[in-house]
Amino acid sequence: MRGPKPVSDPHSSTDADPIKALEARIAAARLTDAEEHHMKKDYSQAQLAWRMVIELVAGLGIGFGVGYGLDILLGTMPIFLVLFIFLGFAAGVKTMLASAQEMQTKQLAKEAGKDEDEERGD
Where do the domains of the chain lie? Predict the structure, then answer.
């Protein structure tokens, strides 16, 4: 009776040095994994969008809480509630605009760095 046949690598034409062939395949796989995926850029944009939404909602929530608390303490139900909701909205919008300005500044700095590299020939 014959024993089981040895299994060989279908990608290798010779079985002389299977370790080197395996190392080459691992290196090739690592190169494909090292490439930056296009989803990372989109994901970072989604994070920035969520940050801005959260800043706006936080401003509204804090304004609501402060206004409602003052109305309960002072017995003047809708006055401070409405006032602080508008103030919270204004604060949230101001924070959103500051975040947008920060993102724009970073983007312009990144583009300026690329332009300098192209001028130098890098």
Answer: 40-120
CA dist., res. 23 & res. 35, Å (int): 19
The answer to whether 57 and 92 are in contact (CB under 8 A) is: yes
Tell me the pLDDT tens digit for each residue of 15-54.
568 888 888 888 888 876 555 555 566 568 888 889 999 9
Place of tokens 């101001």: 94
Distance CA 112, CA 116 (A): 6
What is the C-alpha separation between 87 and 66, in angstroms, rounded?
10
Q: What's the mean pLDDT when you consider all of the chain? A: 82
Q: What is the DSSP letter of 11?
A: T
- Distance (Å, rounded) from C-alpha 4 to C-alpha 61? 71
* Rounded distance between C-alpha atoms, residue 89 and residue 75, angstroms: 23
Write the single-letter amino acid at 43: Y
Whole-number pLDDT of residue 1: 52
Output helix, strand, coil percentages for the chain, rounded to the nearest 5: 80, 0, 20
